Amino acid sequence: MLLRHHTYNRATALAPMTVLLLMGVAVAEPVPDTRPAPAPLPLSVQPSTQEQAPPAPPQAAQSVPAPVIKKTRELPATVYAKVSEDPTPTLAPATFLATMRMAEHYKALAEAGGWSPVPAGTSLKPGDRNPAVAALRGHLVMTGDLAANATHSDLYDEPLVNAVKAFQARHGLPESGLVQRLTVAALNVPASVRQRQLAASAERLIGSKFPFGERYVVVNIPSATVEAVENGGVARRYVAVVGKPDKATPSVETRVTDVNLNPTWTLPVSVIKNEIIPTMRKNPGYLAKNHIRMLGPGGVEVDSTTFDWSGEKAVNYMLRQDSGFDNSLGQVRIDMPNKYAVYMHDTPSKSLFAGNVRFHSHGCVRVGQVKEFAAWLLQGTEGPNGAGSTWGPIEIESGIATGEKRDIKLVKPVPVTFVYLTGYATPDGRAHFRDDIYGLDTPGTPAPSAATDVVTTGSITPRPVIKPARAGQAVPTTADLVPAAPPVTRAKPPAPAPKPEAARRTPSERPPAREREFLPPGLVGPRG
Question: Do residues 99 and 173 both lie within one domain?
Fold first, then answer.
């Protein structure tokens, strides 16, 4: 009705003469319509899209509803710090002798006066001219990064940029070619200090019986990297997070025997005592929220929300975190039996892999791209589908997706070593340096409280600990074992034996027991 009414009004509005002209004269020019445009049609009779109706005027931006963002548990893309792609391993059979010879070379450099310092605050990019370039050139010629016959000028030219990149690679710095704060700091370490780093690292290798083979793994703690070595070259170097100075990662020589998918995590006594008990006093639901079960004798589960947390009785119970997305060990654990009970593992908190300084764990080694590393370890091991199948990244992901805990035994264990090399030389004649994060190169400094045994409740008995060798010290022997408690000195002459009732000493009379030190596994997030 609305459309008919609208058309009727338009037809009757034309003059009779106009209608005749329109109908009888075919060649007549159309008469322009000077009347105002009709009102827009109601929505019920708007033309369809097939009629090519003129587009509606754009709506104001504020009227467009914001897109709904779906919440997801999917992790954001992980950013990894760039590490060297040099195929030369940190540790090889020739490393010890090469490092000893390099220490002698740097001793000669130090005795000759070393190198001139680069002024603090120097900043150079390619093409710059700066008086500091002279000191930079002199240093890099002495260390073999720049040819002795290179052009001498104050221009930061291409050959010098390439020499700086080589220097940065040897010191574990980003190979940018830019001379900035970190590069200047490394340049200004005296030759005598570099010599001491080389000599101390060589001393720490004395007595090593590491079984080099076709395939082995090297974790250089100061580098915070994991190297998968195959046929004498680095097949892949992975970013790692290692122990912080007060929870240092110990030196270890052992073999990788198993890869655990969807592992559980048993909390060490030290974590229960120092973190869990204080937390549970304030928040009784903490363990349940984090899927941590409390197990008593015989593995009977105890209700942690009703447990008495006022004392320290909880250290006598086993606290075990279920496997899953939020488990502190992540989705993969690399099992490598050793007296310190440390290992390599995944982590749900991967943001620390992006940093150039990665000393944050409680002693264990967190490995970036650990699933790829696990696939390398499992080469030759029969896959999940029987004979002829393999454990590649897809199979590992599929195994994790089941949510079931699975232990995969390597068909051939892979040797692994955790070493502490702040200075070392490779057979090609290059010297490499890293920061002495634990202070082991300086004689007389206190030993870190790192190389200690892990005690997990209800499972492992504490073992005596061999302290790591320090610069200028002999290699530790069994005589260096830390006793669990000091010996009791007997009085002379012995007093008459008291009656059995009086033979018991009161607590105040007993000799103080030496407190054992514990190294918990690598934690994640705010806990390490």
Answer: no
Which DSSP letter does residue 148 get? T
CB 389 within 8 A of CB 383: yes
Contact 347, 524 (CB under 8 A): yes
How far apart are alpha carbons 426 and 219 in whole angstroms? 16
pLDDT for position 66: 62
CATH code, domain with 183:
1.10.101.10
In 454-484, which positions are buried (b, 16+ CB within 10 angstroms) versus exposed (e)? bbbbbeeeebebbbbbbbebeebeeeeeeee
Q: Do residues 445 and 196 touch, judged by C-beta distance below 8 A?
A: no
Distance CA 461, CA 469 (A): 25
- The answer to whether residue 410 sits within a structural domain is yes
Average pLDDT over residues 139-153: 92
Specify whether 371 is located in the same domain as 387: yes
Q: What is the dihedral of CA 235, 240, 245, 250, to 10 degrees?
A: -50
Residue 383 DSSP label: B
Do 393 and 469 have their domain in common?
A: yes
Catalytic residue check, 364:
yes
| pLDDT at position 221 over 90 | yes
Q: Each residue of 95-128: b (16+ CB within 10 Å) or e? A: bbebbbebbebbbebbeeebbeebeeebebeeee
Question: What Cα–Cα distance (Å) separates residue 451 from each residue in 65, 352, 364, 516?
Answer: 58, 23, 11, 12
Of the pLDDT bands very low, low, confident and very high (cuts 50, 70, 90), residue 270 is confident
**Are 182 and 130 contained in the same domain?**
yes
Catalytic residue among 345, 360, 362, 432: 345
Does pLDDT of 515 surpass 60? no
Put simply, whether the predicted model's pTM sits higher than 0.85 gets the answer no
Number of domains the chain is built from: 3
Residues 245 and 132 in one domain: no
Reading the block at residue 394, the tokens are 């897809």
CB under 8 A, 24+ apart: contacts of 167-175? 167/140, 167/143, 169/84, 169/86, 170/145, 170/430, 170/431, 170/432, 170/433, 171/432, 171/433, 171/434, 172/84, 172/223, 172/432, 172/433, 172/434, 173/356, 174/82, 174/356, 175/82, 175/84
Are 407 and 433 within one domain? yes
Place of tokens 């005598």: 192
State which H helix or E strand residue 277 sits in: helix 277-282
Question: DSSP of 212-258, one letter per residue?
Answer: --SEEEEEEGGGTEEEEEETTEEEEEEEEEEE-GGGPPPPEEEEEEE
Considering only 48-52, 250-254, 341-345, which range has the smallest mean pLDDT?
Answer: 48-52
CATH number reported for the structural domain that contains residue 407 in this entry: 2.40.440.10
Both tokens of residue 361? 């764990």
